Amino acid sequence: MSELKVTAIKEGTVIDHIPAGKGLKVIQILRLDKLNGGALLLAANVHSRKLGRKDIVKIEGKFLSEEEVNKIALIAPSATVNIVRDYKVAEKFPVEIPEEISGILKCANPNCVSNHEYTTPKFYVISKEPLKVRCHYCERTMEEEEILANL
Amino acid sequence: MGWKNRDVISIRDFSREDIEFVLKTAERLEHELKEKKHLEYAKGRILATLFFEPSTRTRLSFESAMHRLGGSVIGFAEASTSSVKKGESLRDTVKTVEQYSDVIVIRHPKEGAARLAAEVADIPVINAGDGSNQHPTQTLLDLYTIKRAFGKIDGLKIGLLGDLKYGRTVHSLSEALTHYDVELYLISPELLRMPKHIVEELREKGVKVYETNDLESIIGELDVLYATRIQKERFPDEQEYLKVKGSYVVDCTLLEKAKETLKVMHPLPRIDEIHPEVDKTEHAIYFKQVFSGVPVRMALLGLTLGVIE
């Protein structure tokens, strides 16, 4: 099993089935590089039966919140999240692109009011594949490339 | 959805039923107004018009609508005379004005500003244009004008002419027309074609869409020709503007090829898209369109205030 290539963690989160090459981006988006205390492990380009190649990120001592999971869903919709307690997988769930994305994505339209006033940016997912969202405020749509650049 | 306290922000928020209800109410008010000249539905109510961007037609038409309903109006016509100049946030301006009024009409250069204002305010907010995004009351008065001219919207062949790339009114209108069984002819220079995602959305919703740059060859097909101004301010380079400026001129020679019943519309102001000689013909309904602004806005003010049901 590919997981065995990286040390098992006692408590924390394992994000599996990240599309190969997106692992670093996951770390960046979740700001895991600023994590205090626990270890952070990245396995890049490992063999996967499902995806051919994949990345895995293991975060010691941190359980992901739903909001954080949503952030991952936008760049790695195939990912699964494992919550590990005492070396065992206590919970396992696939990430899901939500119907609404709130607070984690900035609108790419420089003239959107959400970039000028105090608001929580909000988007409606109008297509999951290919990924396309519409801004709640300016109604402009954003596609994958713009979305990734504004996370 | 009930109308009292409802915000009017985007044509996307309207079902066909909603649209029809507004048009019916506007028609009723137009008749009442003809009989009585002055109505009192909104007596004692105050409309605040917040125009962060100048506009003659829309602002005056809203003010006229409120006066004709028997209400009164406060507000400002440009941001430089308001506290915005002192750096006040939109949020605070709206929260403040809400204390003085019963309904707010807002025009703002930032897209999404009306949506934000509606979230902040407890009283109804009506969008009178947010940047290049939406202008729902223009769309409703356009539909009202078409309905008044033909008695229906279903079954018509409607041509949208001119700047289909940047034109906010044609985007909103075509979106609203997806609720109806119409054929849409998109007529524009290559440079100013309707954005692809809008054309796709129209087709997905079952509208028959034809794109062309040749007005002359299809004018004989149309029931409605909706002309728009090619907006100079949208072009970063004047050379580019000059290339497309005056691409289309609707004049009496061209209209000889049209059906006798063809109606020509324009959101105004016009530059040279429609020759003044057309004004006197039966085809011209663009000044009726301006007139429609008042009953439609009376309907929206009355319904959202809850004084008309």
Main sheet summary of chain A: 5 strands, antiparallel
- Let me know the average pLDDT of chain A: 88
Which radius of gyration of chain A do the C-alpha atoms yield? 16 Å
Terminal Cα separation of chain B, in Å?
A: 12 Å
In one word, what is the shape of chain B? globular
Low-confidence stretches of chain B: none
Secondary structure elements and their pairing?
The complex is a heterodimer of chains A (151) and B (309).
Chain A (H helix, E strand, L loop, with lengths): L11 E8 L3 H7 L10 E9 L3 E9 L5 H10 L4 E6 L2 E7 L5 E3 L19 E7 L2 E5 L5 E3 H6 L2
Antiparallel strand pairs in A: 1-3, 1-4, 2-3, 4-5, 6-7, 7-8, 8-9
Chain B lengths: L15 H21 L9 E6 L5 H12 L3 E5 L13 H9 L4 E6 L4 H8 L4 E6 L5 H15 L6 E5 L6 H10 L5 E5 L8 H9 L3 E5 L2 H4 L5 E4 L10 H7 L7 H4 L7 E3 L20 H20 L4
Parallel strand pairs in B: 1-2, 1-3, 3-4, 5-6, 5-8, 6-7, 8-9
Key descriptive features of the protein:
heterodimer; A: 151 residues; alpha+beta; five-stranded antiparallel beta sheet; four-stranded antiparallel beta sheet; 3 helices; B: 309 residues; alpha/beta; five-stranded parallel beta sheet; four-stranded parallel beta sheet; 39% helix; 15% strand; globular
